[in-house]
Amino acid sequence: MGKLFGTDGIRGVANQDLTPELAYKIGRIAASLLGGNRGSPLFLIGRDTRLSGGMLEGSLTAGINSAGGDVRLLGVVSTPGVAYLTRQLKASAGVAISASHNPIEDNGLKIIDERGYKLPDALEDKIEAIYYQENDDLPRPCGAEIGRAFFDGDALEAYLAHLKKNGPSLEGMKLVVDCAHGAACRVGGELFKLLGAKVIMLHDEPDGSRINVECGATDTGDVRKEVVKNNASLGLAFDGDADRLIAVDEKGSEVDGDAIMAILAIHMAKKKQLKENVLVTTVMSNGGLDILAEKQGLKVIRTAVGDRYVLEKMLEGGYNLGGEQSGHIIFSDLATTGDGMLTALQLLSVLQEEQRPLSALAAPLERLPQVLVSRKVARKEGWSENEEIKLAIDKIENELGRYGRVLVRPSGTEAKFRIMLEAPEDKKKLEQYALSLADLIAREQS
After folding, report:
1. Which of 231, 295, 327, 377 is deepest in the core (most CB within 10 A)?
2. Does the structure show a pLDDT above 80 at 191?
3. Active-site hit among 100, 233, 285, 326
4. 209 is a catalytic site residue
5. The 3-state secondary structure of the chain, one letter per residue
6. Could you give the CA distance from residue 123 to residue 57 in angstroms, rounded to a whole number?
7. What are phi and psi of 336, to 5 degrees?
8. pTM listed for this prediction
9. 256-367 and 370-444: identical CATH topology
10. Residue 110 pLDDT greater than 60, yes or no
11. Do residues 433 and 370 lie in contact, with contact meaning Cβ atoms separated by under 8 Å?
12. What is the pLDDT of residue 134?
């Protein structure tokens, strides 16, 4: 039996892995499980600009309708926009059709519950179990009980108003904004202009054949050039579904999620707004974040890779700031998921209040050297119990000392292992350790 759900919903190559048939069946199951006690469950569906989005939207809608659920089609909208509107409009659930930062041929289904949160593992497992049953007993209503679908082009205005309410005045600022030909195209330029900024737009045509291609959060080359060329205050680069932000400072240097989190955490702590003085991030964030946090009297708590695990830890501990190096930043006081637009507004608020350039605010984060190596393997199971691998990891960790880290992680989608080493060491030495460990894992998992 295959595994449907990864760390961020169901994802794969559209029309091969993620087929219309799969989307139809998921729609039926989701409508049956998430409809609650409502006579006609209401689902919101939003999508990014991928060419396969309309195909999957149609199949998913048909599945929900066939189980008696109504569908409100939002059109092109960000994943955080779907989450916000699901909660505000009191829908039974929402679905964002997007593969986020992935290549154009991929797509995904991110299911969001009535509270605006991504589904917990237990509910995803239940959906998956029903999906793989030969025969299900899900309802098949007839006549007037069949669900209906309608397009709602006005709902996005409520999300835009929410963002604007949480943004500062941007009078006097010049911004370069890269929409990655994705979901940010609908509100990206308008939002920052409404707040008073002069905006230079890049890749703002909604084009599913170019989404994330040499642009946006995955490739900030154009933003860096335009910031310097136009003497802009900073650049903002979003990914395909606009739940991530990578910034660019006034000198044209990239400012990733780790640096953004450091800036926000220090500022919020200074204003007594950072709950428990804790920042939640994943094991992939650079160790320099821990060192900086120690100096600032803050604490970093790490989770497994995936913004869903960051959010789970935040809710569990009552913390209000967390995120990933990739630019997923979560403000639990303001949103239920990572939101690139909201992150940009919070970052711009800090710049306005501090009256300092982004390069100066990002400077305190000194990164530890980090090496990443990948290896294909025949099997992913059993590696953590392998004595040879455990001994090798222990030996390397002892060699690297207090601030050294060894992270071994099997890929969620491929027969591959990813090995990350980090320490205040010479990078060549780290590379030697990483390659040696990668070769051992490849041999033992053959």
Report:
1. 327
2. yes
3. 100
4. no
5. CCCCEECCEEEEEECCCECHHHHHHHHHHHHHHHCCCCCCCEEEEEECCCCCHHHHHHHHHHHHHHCCCEEEEEEECCHHHHHHHHHHCCCCEEEEECCCCCCCCEEEEEEEECCCCECCHHHHHHHHHHHCCCCCCCCCCCHHHCCCEEECCCCHHHHHHHHHHCCCCCCCCEEEEECCCCHHHHCHHHHHHHCCCEEEEECCCCCCCCCCCCCHHHCCHHHHHHHHHCCCCEEEEECCCCCCEEEECCCCCEECHHHHHHHHHHHHHHCCCCHHHEEEEECCCCCHHHHHHHHHCCEEEEECCCHHHHHHHHHHHCCCCEECCCCCEECCCCCCCCCHHHHHHHHHHHHHHHCCCHHHHHCCCCCCCEEEEEEECCCCCCHHHCHHHHHHHHHHHHHHCCCCEEEEEECCCCCEEEEEEECCCCHHHHHHHHHHHHHHHHHHCC
6. 22
7. -105, 0
8. 0.92
9. no
10. yes
11. no
12. 80
Q: For the ranges 25-39, 331-345, 361-375, which has the lowest average pLDDT?
A: 25-39
Lowest mean pLDDT among 194-198, 260-264, 304-308: 304-308
- The mean of the pLDDT values for the chain is 94
Render pLDDT for 199-221 as a digit per residue (tens, 0 to 9).
999 999 999 999 999 999 999 99
Fold observed for domain 5-156: Alpha-D-Glucose-1,6-Bisphosphate; Chain A, domain 3 (3.40.120)
Contact 107, 16 (CB under 8 A): no
Class level of CATH domain 168-253? alpha beta
Res 441: pLDDT: 95
Tens digits of residue pLDDT in 343-374: 999 999 999 999 999 999 999 999 999 999 99
If you average pLDDT over residues 252-277, what whole number do you get?
98
Q: Determine the pLDDT at residue 37.
A: 65
CA distance 42 to 92: 5
- The CATH number of the domain covering residues in 256-367: 3.40.120.10
Q: Left if phi > 0, otherwise alpha if psi is -120 to 50, otherwise beta: which for 318? A: left
According to CATH, what is the number of the domain 370-444?
3.30.310.50
